[in-house]
From TrEMBL:
Residues 1-100 form the ERV/ALR sulfhydryl oxidase domain. This is Sulfhydryl oxidase. It is found in: Mitochondrion intermembrane space. The lineage of its organism: Eukaryota, Fungi, Dikarya, Ascomycota, Pezizomycotina. Its cofactor is FAD. Its EC number is 1.8.3.2. Signal peptide: none annotated. GO terms for cellular component: mitochondrial intermembrane space. One of its GO terms (molecular function) is flavin-dependent sulfhydryl oxidase activity.
Length: 106
């Protein structure tokens, strides 16, 4: 339904924007914060099927966040997992930073 889609678009914008401003060389604390955030985000995400699958994904594919690029790519992979599930085109993760940090219009 429309609200799951609007919620999804806004949420991906938030998540990818967080990766775009994530430090290039994060401290242990910053790495731990982003992992806690995503863990809670996955629990509280207000679409229960989405939340359940996302939590399962995070169990299978542990969050990688030892650098901005690593986290950006991990998140791109998580988003691609949902793209595959919904029959959408996969996104080229080499372009994640161009899309979400240095910018293009969509
Ligand atoms: P979106 O998928 O919302 O993407 C927005 C923009 O992000 C795109 O236009 C593109 O420029 C860019 N983008 C696309 N793929 C990537 C990528 N891999 N990396 C970086 N940028 C990318 N919907 C469901 O129906 N069922 C679900 O189970 C479900 N689970 C979700 C789980 C999570 C954690 C989130 C945040 C959303 C989920 N959604 C789910 C919503 C779904 O992913 C889409 O947001 C929604 O269908 C709207 O899709 P869209 O085509 O507008 O683009």
């Amino acid at each position: 339904p429309a609200d799951v889609e609007a919620l999804g678009r806004s949420s991906w914008t938030l998540l990818h924007s967080i990766s775009a401003t994530y430090p290039v060389a994060p401290t242990t604390q910053e790495q731990s914060d982003v992992k806690s955030f995503l863990g809670l985000f996955g629990k509280l995400y207000p679409c229960w099927v989405c939340a359940e699958d996302f939590q399962e994904y995070m169990e299978r594919e542990k969050i990688k966040a030892s650098s901005r690029d690593e986290f950006g790519r991990w998140l791109c992979g998580a988003h691609n997992e949902v793209n595959r599930k919904l029959g959408k085109k996969e996104f080229d993760c080499n372009l994640w930073e161009e899309r979400w940090r240095t910018g293009w219009k969509d």
